[in-house]
Structures are given as structure tokens and as C-alpha cells.
Amino acid sequence: MEINKSNINWYPGHMAKAKRLIEDDLKLIDIVIEVIDARIPISSRNPDLNNMVKNKKKIIVLNKSDLADEIQTKKWKEYLTNQDTIAISVNSLYNNKNNEIINTIEKMIKGEKEKGLEKGRIGRTTRVIILGIPNVRKIFLNK
Questions:
Q1: Which portions of the chain are predicted below pLDDT 70?
Q2: 91 lies in a domain?
């Protein structure tokens, strides 16, 4: 039995379209915030995302940390931090850590901002994208 591989397409069109849009947007982005579920940090990540954002500064937000085991969340934060990224645990519904996230972003761009000021560039906006699979609650920076 011969299978024509062009007839097998399990990747939904809306996902392919979203991936193309993200790849286009990433050309303009300075920092990527990936939101994952603190209870299931590996399976709540999009496996395509690492390749897409490999040259970008990145923050991983472990959301729903109030529902996860505190010790395990701490271990995941340490592990992710050792992977050349910054990890922050939050509970976006009740214990908002917007200030910690914003302060982290400011630290990440401080050097670039200073170089820009030396060259006379002021007021450049830092462009951030927030990504994550459905149901990880990506609303924490909406204020």
C-alpha cells in the first residue's frame, strides 16, 4: 500500500497561519515573553517556538503558579534560568507581578537603551510579544 504524503495534513490551517504571522512579527520584536502553565511546564510549550525565537531575548512566565507545587515551580525556574532565559512565576488572576516583569524587561534592554542615547536616539519603544498555547492565560500584562 502506497501512501501519498501530500494527502496527510494534520497541521490545522489556523495554526500554520498563526505561525507565519508570529514569524513576521518577530522581525520587529525586541523581547519575547512565553507564558507557560507552571503545573505542566514542558507540555504547555509550543515546540516550534524555541526555533522561532532563538535569537531574541526571552522571558518565560510560569503562570498559574498558585495551582502548582511551589518546590517544583522553584526547580523549574532554576532550570529555565540556566537555559539562557529568565523565568518568573506568577498567578495572573490574584497576585499580579507586572512590576517584576516590567523591571526585568527594563534590565534586559538597559545596555541597548544607553547605546541609543549615546547616539542621540531617545524615546525608542521596546517591542514585546506575549506568546503561549491556549489556556495558559496570557492576560497578565493587560493593565
A1: 1-11, 95-97, 137-143
A2: yes
